[in-house]
Fold:
Amino acid sequence: MKTTNNDEIGDLYGILEKPNIREVQFGLDKRFRTWYGITVYFANDRKSLGYKFKHSGTSERNPEPNGDYFWLDTLLVCEYCFKYYDETDEFIAHERCCRYKRRPPGRIKYLSPEYSIRKVKGTKHELFCQCLCLFTKLFLDNKSVYFRMTGYEFYILYETNSNKPLGFFSKDQYSYNRNNLACILVFPPYQRRNLGTLLIDFSYRLSKNDGIISGPELPLSPFGLIGYLKFWSFSIAWHITEGDLSDRHKISLNTISEVTGIRVADVLTVLKHMQCLTENDEILLPVVRRWAKDHNVERGFMLKEQYLVLND
Structure:
């Protein structure tokens, strides 16, 4: 088996060890620093963005106090379609007439008074999905696909009264392990609002609608693991204290998996995290119920079923 070193992986996915774009102008009113570096936005000369088919001449790079240099000071990104620019005039002209400013792509799969989730197929909206994935790579340390969209579906989260995306997750339609989620990101301006939990919950609703027990693509990133531990623990605790398992005096891992739709291995992981297992992997239900009380577990953290629109 051929071994791939880190340099080869970096070349393949455009990964850099440090950010090479200082910050992102997201729409007309949001600006924030990037977290990770990628090369795929740029042409080979590293002086112009890749969507431009001619060199823009020499470009002066801006040094940081620690001696690092950025390839680009500010990347201008449309907050409706994720198209990117380095010229302000081009960016503003696009923002005025972006087709998705009036109507987002895809079909609504969840619609509540607060939020909506739209399903966007990579086969139908390839450029939108490519630009979304490129933007995502600035904020995720694990590699994500950006050039082959036909096998993926994207579920984009919006506020119901707005056409500005808040975050998304992608799903590989041909996953060998039938994973329900490949990549997830809540965009920096909208983090710390429990939107990641909402998206994870919806991914499990899709699996249950298909009649399968599933979970995310592994391995999880450190931030991804934190998000999933929160969702798994709250979901299991709620079902044991208030839901379908609340009248049980003894419960198996398989039963929890069947009711929650969470894979047995993930159920085991989170129960160990909650310290609710004996050495023989028996579930300590009083400990689970006490954990739920201590953490104020309520139904409110989950999607409201009456607003699901899963059927095409």
